[in-house]
Design goal:
heterodimer, A: 420 residues, alpha/beta, D-Maltodextrin-Binding Protein, domain 2, 2 domains, 4-stranded mixed sheet, 4 strands, 68% helix, B: 299 residues, Rossmann fold, Alpha-Beta Plaits, 34% helix, 29% strand, ABC-2 type transporter transmembrane domain-containing protein (chain A), cell membrane (chain A), membrane (chain A), ABC-type transporter activity (chain A), transmembrane helix (chain A)
Chain lengths: 420, 299
Amino acid sequence: MNKFWIVFSHTFMSKIKAKSFIITTALFLAFIIIMSNIQSIMDIFDQEEVDQVAVVTETDSFYESLDNSLQAAESDIEIVRYNGTLEKAQEQVIDGEYSAVLEITEQEQLPAAVYYTADMSSTSIESTLNQALEQIKTEIATNKAGLDPGTIATIYEPMSFEKEPIVAEGEEGSVKTEEELSGARGLVYVILFLLYFAVIAYGNMIATDIANEKTSRVMEILISSSSPVSQMFAKILGIGSVGLVQMLLYLGVGYIVIQQKQEELVGGFFEFFGLSETSASTFVYAIVFFLLGYFLYATLSAMLGSLVSRTEDVQQLMTPVILLIVVAFMISIFGLSNPSSQFVTIASYIPFFSPMAMFLRVGMLNIPFWEVGLSIAILIITIVILAIVGARVYRGGVLMYGTSTSLKDFKKALQLSKKD
Amino acid sequence: MTLELKNVTKRFGSFTAVDNLSLEIPENNIFGFLGANGAGKTTTFRMILNLIDQSDGSITWNGEEINYNNSDRIGYLPEERGLYPKLKVRDQLIYLGKLRGLSKNDASNELKKWLDRLKVPQYLDKKVEELSKGNQQKIQFISAVIHKPKLLILDEPFSGLDPVNVEMLKEAVEELGRSGTSIVFSSHRMEHVEQLCEHLCMLQKGKTILHGNLKEIKRSFGKKNLSIEADCDLDFVNQIPGVLKTTPFSGGMVCQIESEAVSQAVLEKLIGKGFIRKFELDEPSLNDIFIEKAGESYE
């Protein structure tokens, strides 16, 4: 057990201290901070620029309505009545005096507009103007038809559509409310992405680390001093802890950033993710399924890592693992909008899909405990089997140096660890 | 602290790598393992270290099996360099020392002693990949002995080293042997085995073809070497009964003779033919024995 901790702390420290780890983590943290402040950063650049648009029109009321509506919306666009000809105005756009020219003509009392611009690719000014004119047109048209503003408001008012669960007698409280569901959905999203990210990033790290030890042949010394099983798990836990530190850093920084912006966001951190209504049991399941999922894929990665003899071959062997997690991810994303489908139910018992699919069901549906228990039991059994097979492959695989990467290697490794 | 191998066999599928090997390696002794490439030396070592299981037979050390309970008392230097290329020498040796049950302080003290001893203290904070192959081998050697093992297994310890460093490591091995470490080492360089070992074992395609005390092996081999340097044509020596093989060189020849007595017959015939500058009777070298024994089993 003592040696387990030696390997564990060595793995943990060497990964945490690695330059690549520090740089990636720092970059990602910087990314989080920049993204959360992107609005303020963009504002800094945009401040001086107020877009002036020249308006050429013969109808005063159109101009006034447009000006009013833009001011009411506190838009960055400023319109200027241009009294010259359209050609003159266009020339002034080329000279840089105006950003664009808007020509508004009257057709059957309704406005029609042509937007002249030197920058055809930019659409932000154009769409603001378009929307404002659209409104003016609606107003004029409805006025013409003799409708009063109250009627118009009624037309545009959204219809009331509510969802209410049907609950059998005696089962009140067992059905999830809409708030609980959206909370669960948020948490499912978070866990799906975290697990996906963890498997891809840390699974790869484990496989690469083991392949490295094999390539440098230090493995032969390692397994002559301590047992392969304890080494394999020390490695899985060591890298898992590195991942935990990294994720906690991201979450911590994310939390602080969101806390700082609280005035803008209305509501706290948990509300931001829609987690304020989530029940404690869902949180517990989230942790259980995340950990089991990580162990399952990590054990598989460790086993595969011990099969290759060159670091270059790691990617090749990791492809099926990544495909598995992608499939699991797709099933769960599909399941989010349809959690009670047969498809998701079946997937929630298949080990490699169950961490995501079963958590999805637990979070979104009310399923009897035995179903969750069964799924967890299957997962644990699979992990144990993988660990036993993995340890044997590990012991044989580390002494095997070849170039091919195929199932044959798997058999060979098992054979090497056997007596005959 | 005897290491005992009894009827050890290792099969990989239909291929037999080690065939019915029985050995006894006494305590405080340097034991040599000889054999051509692929003879089964490394496989035997891996079985002793319990890295792979033997198909048949038993391996015991002081009557107990070797496993992770007593691995702290065993040192191992594998044939290929096995170190973390990107780790500094200090961190590397402390980690490997800790895995063999040393405390961090002890490992740190021991490694400094050894680096001084092998005249490479300047590499303490260098990455292993920056060192030359020979210096890497020294670090590898330290990793095998840092925890003062009772049983030390060295697989081709002197390969890739220049003569000065070979001497340095040989001295270290001898001293460890004197201080009570049982050492098993393999080599295909006969002179290393001759200089270091009292006991040896010769493997050929997984089978023992020689086993025992070095002096006894030489004595029981019977044949001797005779080197002659003389100013005359030496071809006639071939005709003398009891002369088995001759290898001429400029100004002389080395011949293998059946027994000591034959040398006198050769001398008699030689006298009067010319000026004799050298006439020397030698023990056979291990190399001769190896070639002969290995050759026999090829036929």
